[in-house]
Amino acid sequence: MTAPQRLTDRKRDAIIQAAIAEFRANGFDITSMDKIAATAGVSKRTVYNHFPSKEELFAEILNQLWARVTAEPETPYRSDRPLREQLRLHLMAKMQMLGDDNFLNLARVAIAATIHSPERAQNMVARMGEREEGLTVWIRAAQADGRLKAVDPGFAAQQVQGLLKSFAFWPQVSMGLPGLSAEMQGTVVESALDMFLACYQLQ
Length: 203
Prior knowledge:
The chain is mainly α. About 75% of the residues lie in helices and about 0% in strands. It has 2 domains: about 5-50, Orthogonal Bundle (Arc Repressor Mutant, subunit A); about 65-200, Tetracycline Repressor, domain 2 (Orthogonal Bundle).
């Protein structure tokens, strides 16, 4: 990669970070491309070279959020390992993502903007629905192996992840509370494991 390309990439990243900051502070409708350019330290022309419109810039923020949500490491089901041990890996990976400051910033922007204009997020939500999460796949495999009760795998996955988000996502996004300590993260994960396995594990 040449130096000019790296500079272009740095400017693009600066524009995206500036847009996130401005959308968070002022909302989508009030934020102008001029203000984003000023915050990023680039010319307005440079902003438009990367993003022809504010809508496209916002779409890129949603795309980055979608990419983070779906980039969880693959943890395939194993019939020779305890369920709790395997499920803990899934939940700890999810907990790490929920605690990432950049992810939380992206989520705040997306949620704030889509409350006022839900159609902006419909494309991202549709795309997210097309790709089944690794945890859903894992639950289905454990059911096929006769180790979990019959329940819709997507429902069960959303349910157990909701237990994490009630401590490690919504309070931070909606009320600006600090992220959980490592000890509290472990406590929340172990509690979620207790509840999930008590409900769905076949003895």
